[in-house]
Amino acid sequence: MPELPEVETVVRDLRALLPGSVIAAVWTSSRPLRVAWQAEWTQHLVGRRIGHLERRGKWIIVKLDDNASVVVHLGMTGQLRVCDSDEPGDEHVHFRLRLNTGRELRFRDIRRFGSLRWMPPGVPIDSVPRGRLGPEPWDTDPEELGRRIRRSRRAVKAILLDQQVMAGVGNIYADEALFAAKISPLARGVDLTKRQVRQLHRALNRVLQRAIQARGTTIRNYVGGSGLGGGFQDHLQVYGRGGQPCRRCRRPLTRLRVAGRSTHFCPQCQRPSGAASEVESCPSVP
DNA sequence: GGTATTCCCTGCGGGC
DNA sequence: TGCCCGCAGGGAATAC
After folding, report:
1. Is A4-127 assigned to CATH 3.40.605.10?
2. pLDDT digit string (tens) for A50-74?
């Protein structure tokens, strides 16, 4: 379930492997992904040299030498990695770029929730999702985050998952950041105090940076661009721990469904409103 | 316009 | 052992 740290890890891995390579051939599977894709891949890509790779929210942008780009979303189970051309694939590989280096860039996606699109030169990445992408977590200050959160009556968990409010946060890191900030996922955005917003801003940045250091969280399928998994799953405080004791107060953690997503929190430490103390440090990551 | 809900998709795990 | 069912969740579509 790739979120910002996992996508950032994939991009960093691929930056060491892809730029400068020339695309020699394109292969697509007969099973289309959930999001329809263009059929003219060969015409658009063969002969093009791969340039820089960027990340925007959960989207991966592969720049080409003609200023067009390939934009990738990993969905739930998407894997984008470079491997040798003769490495065997399986029925879940949906897209292959054969490179002049003898290697391949492969997109594998078991649930087919991911997407690949060719973007002509000059089209901004923000136009890909249906709504505009919000800022990166570290490109906004607590005041701006507060304006975006407090204008909504939705639960703060739902607001954090909204990519128009802030790009990159998904279910795991929303739960972890809310726990670190001692804010209930059920609290309404409009009810958050300035102090709580400041703590949430700090917690989001801290959790995401620590997760990037650990190469993201591998629950089931996620691997980086070089095929290595993540390590942050060993440091999760609440996600996936419903019913287990809270690491702060030892009371059982609760699991609810908020905004259609499983949500894990401590009802004792994370009160819907009221004064919260300082953000607690996240667990240290090796 | 804002918010909530449903759908897509497939592997896994639990219950029987 | 094998079958059935619920769960996982990001983004788009739809409903209210």
Report:
1. no
2. 999 999 999 999 999 999 999 999 9
* Predicted local distance difference test score (pLDDT) of residue A204: 94
pLDDT band, residue A283 (cuts 50/70/90): very low
> Token pair 């499983």 is at which residue?
A262
What's the rounded mean pLDDT across residues A130-146?
87
pLDDT at A90: 83
Rounded to an integer, what distance in angstroms lies between the CA atom of residue A146 and that of residue A188? 12
SS3 of chain A: helix, strand, coil, percent, to 5: 25, 25, 50
- Give A230 CA → C12 C1' in Å: 29
- CB < 7 Å to strand B — which of 3-42 in chain A? 31, 34
CATH of domain A137-265: 1.10.8.50
Nucleotides of B under 7 A from a protein CB: 2-12
Chain A 160-219 residues whose Cβ is under 7 Å from strand B: none
User: Coil, helix or strand for A276?
Assistant: coil
Q: What residue ranges do the domains of chain A occupy?
A: 4-127, 137-265
Q: What is residue A160's predicted lDDT score, i.e. its pLDDT?
A: 94
